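Fold it.
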Amino acid sequence: KGTTLRLVLIRHGQTDSNLSGALDTAWPGRPLNATGREQATALVDKYHQLVGAAPQRLASSFILRARQTAEPLAQEFGLPVQVDPDLREVRAGLLEMSMTQQDTREYLYTAIDWGTGNLDRRMPGAETGAQTLARFDRGIARLCAGLEDNPQATVVVIIHGAIMRVWGANRIEGLTLDLLSQFPCLNCSLTMATGSPTAGWKAELWSDRKLEDWPVVPGAQPRTSKEAREQLEAVLFS
């Protein structure tokens, strides 16, 4: 029986590239904007509400916005941030910084195709799905290493939206492709799973909410993160 860890995956705070819909995946990437900095600060209270237990380890993608998002949590819990290049976003390759509908759709549908198990498909000029999953698996394994003697340990990682969907679809039981394609995780939202790298993971939360609370429509159109945010804002502010 594998150790039961609690894995908390947090998407970084908002950047100007998130607002424009630019495929910003290269190092260092755009920094958090004013809203993103507020979200990162508010993340501490949200973490206490949704997780409760202090983390034993805190890791982050090496991309600037993820490291900035991790700082308030690191200060709150007195933890160093393990910065790991393997935990970076799904690389956009030749589509980097594009905002065209054609390119953002290609990026989205390649990632969703990986979620169906077509892992040989390559992002133009970048990694295949298999390569992307393998390096993210390495990062998660490093984050969890040596915690076998602490079966109730909590580990936290600050990452990115597309890799959350791709890795979630392939590695976390309970996260369906319909949920992941229709509801990208929002900036500074928490996704939580229990399990271990050897035993596998089971979903508890997706983007701050229990799985059954998402209004998933079987077979509905996938959404980019920008589309999901704009739709939510239209509902909230209409």
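The helical segments are 16-20, 34-50, 64-77, 101-115, 129-144, 161-171, 177-182, 225-237.
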